[in-house]
Amino acid sequence: MNNKYMWQKFSMDIDARSGNPASGAEKDAAEYLELLELGEVLARQDFSQGSNKAAVLLQARNRVLTEQEEPKMSIRQRIKRPAMIVASLLAAGIVSISFVRPSFAQEMLVRALNTINLGHIIASEMDPNYKPEFPEAWKGKMFDKDGHPITSFNHKLGTVFNAEGERIVNFDGDKLITQSEQEKLDKEQAARIFAVKDPAELDKYALFRVKLPEYLPEGFAFDHGEFYKGEEGVNGQVVELFFTSEQTGKRIWMQLRLSNKDNAYEMSTSGKMEQVELNGVDAVMMNERTLDWEANGVLYDLSTHGLDRAEVLKIAESIRW
């Protein structure tokens, strides 16, 4: 996903999965405004898929889900998260178990209050009061703006830095990633995106029939689809679809995956989670803004921003799988 839409997806995901609007003070924070400007939309993921999609640290509406695939076009994508937000992601229940460090995954299983299993999709309702342990591997490597070491998720901070004073914006397992390192990774990832503007062309690259919604709210239109590409060409197992409305600022994002064990995923929320039915198929709805389901060999993930529950369901039910 290119940077513009990565940040858009972030915006929608946060709105959809957390369901908690930022306070006036948080909206005025420079970090928060920066994130909103960079990504005004997806406002959840797994995401993400960045195994997200998934980073760290307590307080924050500064949460980011940056999706990125594994090397050599493996479809098990990984969610990368800014180091500023790991704890807040966990506390908000946005992090997907399959996309985080193993120790975090185990802790999240402990805090699951309810689970819905759809086969290749597992959704959990999490205990919002559970506090994860701070990774030992990060101690002595992360500092606040005043140079004080960060050793717990209870440490209140904004921007975080490494020992050399470089800003930390992401992580990969135990490795903390600086802003300059992330910019390099972003460029490499952008080079692997294959965009398709004509919806009629999507089936040429996907390994399944790409079914688009027959219903979209007034003003919405298909913008483009994205595949990943590698040395062997375009990877047709996963496609991301973007629908935009210039007039309203509302947004719709979808991800479709070929259904198999490698593309299976888990997600969580500390907000509202319910099992619903879409044209005879079981689905999971989170915070009345996102829907995930499996039908005819395809995994569907629908995320929205600014739409009500009935509208979200209507969009999903209009897909003729």
Account of the 3D structure:
With 321 residues, this protein is of the alpha+beta class. It folds into 2 domains: 167 residues, no CATH class; 125 residues, 3-Layer(aba) Sandwich (Protein Transport Mog1p, Chain A), CATH 3.40.1000. Helix content is 21%, strand content 30%. The strands form 4 sheets. It has an 8-stranded antiparallel sheet with strand order 8-9-10-11-16-15-14-13, with helices on both faces. A hairpin with a 2-residue loop joins strand 15 and strand 16. Helix 1 crosses helix 3. The longest helix has 16 residues. It is globular and about 55 Å long. The N terminus is likely disordered.
List SSEs in N-to-C order: HHHEEHHEEEEEHEEEEEEEEEH
Distance between the termini: 25 Å
SS summary, helix count: 7
- What is the number of strand segments? 16
Work out the radius of gyration: 18 Å
Beta-sheet strand percentage? 25-35%
Q: How many domains make up the coordinates? A: 2
Unreliable parts:
1-105
- Average pLDDT taken over every residue: 73
**Approximate helicity band:** 10-25%
